[in-house]
Known about the structure:
By secondary structure, the chain is mainly alpha-helical. Helix content is 76%, strand content 0%. It has 13 helices and no strands. The protein starts with 15 loop residues before the first helix and ends with a helix.
Amino acid sequence: MPEIIRFNPNKQHYGTTTLITGYxxxxxxxxxxxxxxxxxxxxxxxxxxxxYLTSSFGVWVLAKFNLLHHxxxxxxxxxxxxPAAIVFYLAIFANTNLLRHANxxxxxxxxxxxxxxxxxxxxxxxxxxxxxxxxxxSLFIILGGAVGYVVTDKGFTLVAxxxxxxYSMTITxxxxxxxxxxxxxxxxxxxxxxxxxxxxxxxxPFFWVLSGECGELFSSESGGWDRLEPVAFVAVCLSCxxxxxxxxxxFAARKAISATAFTVTGVVNKFLTVLINVLIWDKHATPIxxxxxxxTLAGGVLYQQSVTSPKPVASVLARR
Length: 320
């Protein structure tokens, strides 16, 4: 009898090219899809809750069909992970509200400021050495591009930039603190996705009520569920689907390629996001703002080059 081939959820079954392509498409499209979704379905807290529900439930269902493996939910681990989930939720919630009040490019600019904020935080609070000269130059290119973008932003509103500030702060905290804590919990890739989204889903109702969306959604005077037209329904479904897909392709690609290649892919994705956003509609920055954004992204590429040290020859040979 022919041997039965069984699917092993712990084994890599996808080619590197497939993973990189999938990650690039999801990453490039997600910001635009989220902007489209929040434009058609103006409830940021509920939208993020639906994304967490889709991702956590999707991981659970796929695990039941033995298509992947995730760590089981345990209260002691959840208790340790909870602060990370809070910061993660705040970052996504702030970014969704930023997209609600500003264009995609504004979100990218403030996301690109992260290396500068992390470098300052590391030096001030973790007593890390000052950045090297090339790193210092790249950080100021990022800052200069961001300042230029803000100055030339015709759609500037105080509310949008307050959310941009909150988003930058929460992302910086995630980079400096949360990642260090998460890596010490011993969770596998899908365990991280499962805990992160499930705990964030538990936090979501608090922000749903706090933001006033709960009353607005169920109010007949404000339209409520009447706003969930077919186009809005499709937009929300796409946002939730791509949220799950980027979890898979992002973590899988991170395992399949080097950290440098993954970061460069992420930067290229931002260029693709800007291109897609400019081509599909008029909700984008001015030409001068786009030039400033390109300077910010170029500074990000230079920063990555400045902090990437070549691997010793011995370690490279040892892997062969």
